[in-house]
Design brief:
Blueprint lengths: L7 E5 L4 H12 L3 E6 L2 H13 L4 E5 L5 H15 L4 E4 L16 H26 L4 E6 L11 H23 L4 E8 L5 H4 L11 H10 L9 H12 L10 E4 L7
Parallel strand pairs: 1-2, 1-4, 2-3, 4-5, 5-6, 6-7
Helix pairs in contact: 1-2, 1-8, 3-4, 4-5
Bound molecules: nicotinamide-adenine-dinucleotide.
The site of nicotinamide-adenine-dinucleotide has 29 residues, from helix 1 and helix 6.
Length: 259
C-alpha cells in the first residue's frame, strides 16, 4: 500500500536537484504534489515526469522570499487538493559560499539569509496555520553546513538557523497540542547544479572533476550523495514510519560529520 495515499505534499525548489527527486519519490508513494519553484518551467518539468508515471501534481511559480506568494501557494493547495499534509522547505542558494569573509557584501549575505532562512520561517508559519487542526509533517532541508563550518558565513549561518528554527517549531507545535511534526535534514554533498556552480569560487580547483574528487575525499563512505539519498529521507519523515520523530536532525552525509 502507498505510504502517502490521500496526502498532499508541497515541495519548494522542486524544479531541480533534491527538490525534484523528493517530489518524484513522494508522488511515487501516492501523495498529490504541489511543486513550486521560482523557475516555473523547471517545476513544470518535474510535474510532467510525475504525471507520466501516473501521479498527480501541479506546478506553481513561487519565489519563497515573498510572503504574499506563500499565502497564495498554500491557498491554491487547499483549493486544489483539500489539505496540506507535508511541506518540504527545500529551495535554497549557495550564494556567497567560497568568497573570503572580508569580501562578502551585506546585500549578498541578506540574499542568502532571505532564501535559506527567512523563507523557511514563512513556510513554517503558513504550514502551521494550514495544518494545526488536521496535522502534518514539516521537513526543512538544512545541511551538514548547519552543523559544522566550512561553507562560508552566510550559508553556514542560514543552515544553522534552519536547524534551530526546526526545533523551535517542533516544540511550539507540541506545546500547543498541534499534531504537526517538524524535522530537519542535513545532507552531505550531493552532485547537483548548486554544488557544481561552486567550482568558480573554490581556490586551487580548476574543473568540476577536481572539485568532485576533493569533495569525495571528505566523505568516509567514498562517494558523493545522489538526490535520491536525500529524497528517501524526506519520504521517511513525511510518512508515519517516523511518527515519533519531531525536532530531530536527520543527517544523511556519507560520514562527513563523523570525522
Ligand atoms: N546539493 C548539496 O550538496 C546540498 C547539501 C546540503 C544541503 N543542500 C540544500 O538542499 C536544497 C536543494 O539544493 P539542490 O542542491 O537541489 O540545489 P539546486 O540548485 O539543484 O535546486 C535549488 C532549486 O531552488 C530553486 N530556488 C532558488 N531560489 C529560489 C527562490 N527564491 N524561490 C523558490 N525557488 C528557488 C531553484 O530554482 C532550484 O530549482 C537547498 O536548500 C540546499 O541548500 C544541498
Amino acid at each position: 500500500m502507498a505510504k502517502l495515499g490521500g496526502k498532499t505534499a508541497l515541495v519548494t525548489g522542486g524544479g531541480s536537484g533534491l527538490g525534484e527527486a523528493s517530489s518524484e519519490i513522494l508522488a511515487g508513494e501516492g501523495a498529490s504534489l504541489v511543486v513550486t519553484d521560482v523557475n516555473e518551467s523547471a517545476a513544470q518539468h518535474t510535474v510532467d515526469i510525475i504525471r507520466q508515471r501516473g501521479g498527480s501534481a501541479i506546478s506553481l511559480a513561487h519565489d519563497v522570499t515573498k510572503k504574499d506568494e506563500w499565502s497564495k501557494v498554500v491557498q491554491t493547495t487547499l483549493r486544489e487538493f483539500g489539505s496540506l499534509d507535508v511541506l518540504v522547505n527545500n529551495a535554497g542558494v549557495s550564494g556567497t559560499s567560497g568568497l573570503p569573509m572580508e569580501d562578502i557584501e551585506f546585500e549578498a549575505w541578506r540574499e542568502v539569509m532571505s532564501v535559506n532562512l527567512d523563507a523557511v520561517f514563512m513556510g513554517c508559519q503558513e504550514a502551521i496555520i494550514a495544518m494545526k487542526d488536521t496535522g502534518g509533517s514539516i521537513i526543512n532541508i538544512s545541511s551538514i553546513m548547519g552543523i559544522v563550518g566550512g561553507a562560508g558565513a552566510a550559508y553556514n549561518a542560514s543552515k544553522g538557523g534552519v536547524r534551530l528554527l526546526t526545533k523551535s517549531v517542533a516544540v511550539y507545535c507540541g506545546n500547543n497540542g498541534y499534531p504537526i511534526r517538524c524535522n530537519s535534514i542535513h545532507p552531505g554533498y550531493i552532485w547537483t547544479p548548486m554544488v557544481r556552480n561552486v567550482v568558480d569560487f573554490v581556490p586551487d580547483v580548476e574543473s568540476e572533476e577536481e572539485l568532485q574528487a576533493m569533495l569525495i575525499e571528505r566523505h568516509p563512505i567514498g562517494r558523493l550523495g545522489v538526490p535520491d539519498d536525500i529524497a528517501n529521507g524526506v519520504l521517511f519523515l513525511a510518512s508515519d514510519a517516523s511518527s515519533f520523530m519531531t525536532g530531530s536532525e536527520l543527517v544523511i552525509d556519507g560520514g562527513y560529520t563523523a570525522v
